[in-house]
Structure prediction request, 452 residues.
Amino acid sequence: MKRVITLGILIIICFVLQTALFPFIEIADVTPNLLLILTVSFGLMRGRREGMLVGFFCGFLYDVYFGYTIGFYMLIYMLIGYCNGFFHRLYLVEDVLLPIIIILLDDFVLNFATYVIFFMMRNRIELGNYMRQIMIPDMIYTALLTLFIFKLLVLINRTLKRWEKGSE
Amino acid sequence: MKRNKKHFEITPKYILLFLTILCVVLMVLSLFFEGMFLSVRNLTNSFIEPMQKGVNGVGRWFENKAEALENYETLEAENEALREQLELYQTQITNYQLDSYELERLRNLYELDAQYSDYPKTAARVIAKDTGNWFDVFYIDKGTKDGLQNGLNVLYGNGLCGIITETGEDYAKVRAIIDDTSNVNAMVLPSEAICNVSGSLTNYTDGYLIAENIDKDADIEEGDEVVTSYVSNKYLSGLLVGYVSRMEYDSNNLTKTAYITPAADFSNIQEVLVITQEKKTITE
Prediction:
């Protein structure tokens, strides 16, 4: 139960930070994707189930606010969380490289899906431009932020684990 | 089966399947019934919005401080240069004042319609922005309570900024004209050539909006004003969109395309003005 509440609060905090604070710190017109970091981290640390659920609710919030159709980002974030669960077995607490590589991949998948659904379908086909101006800066920025946020989330996860052990 | 009842859990695979179906159903529903999820948003918004406002304040404070520090030296130099300019301008102002008296007189003569400064307006604060990098949509802190409704035009600085696409009790969603899905029917002054100004993500990073479908023979020069046209059924006429900065002939040899520098600076929008008058009420 504690875990559910903590995760709920984390998701809301990340969403609020991303919508209200991050527009102030954008570099080169690009802002990092905190919700994705959250989804990926929990998928990696806790496995498929939690990654999937965290992704689902992150996507839900995003869709309710900014989505053109409710459900699209829900689906993508959920799938990303779920797929990251498969890397749970490879995950080591000290390892920083794995999360970075995975987040780069995921961010690319997320952006590419957005591009295909919302842009390519409207006949905007200059993929190279979009790559250069949006996808790659976004990937780099998000990956850099992951370095810091991930450590924090690992700490939170550890505390949660200790609590759960204590209550059993 | 040794499953303990307490630890009984459905495998993630099935949850995934179930949630995927749920997502697809929601997608289809939201495609066909727009506005169905308005109540959901109102609910989530009622406790997320106060937080956004608070965090926004923090962000603004940081930004102001950072700017102040960064700019201190440049400001001093700028100050000096500006002082010199000021003297120069003061003499010019007197000239302009004379001109403006004349202009006013002429305007009265022509019985020109009032400029858009006469539209009823209300100021609102930007509270949240879509940070997906792909779209330019933001939320403002006024809604139906303050008399806002869908389709109202939003100004920033001295130019058109966007249009309200959705309203809740105390918030409204604004789509900026630089959003990739935005289209504004506009005309180029003084030649009154009608064109379609569309936001374009790839071009906006270079600082341009695109005006398409301008007649090939239209007499347009760099620096011409682009304003919303009287033909548009969503935007009030005569709102400044931007200035023409260069032109290209299209490959069909019938039309040309102009690159427009927007009048509003979209990089850092904080307070906007909403025109509380809809287009319809004017044409009536």
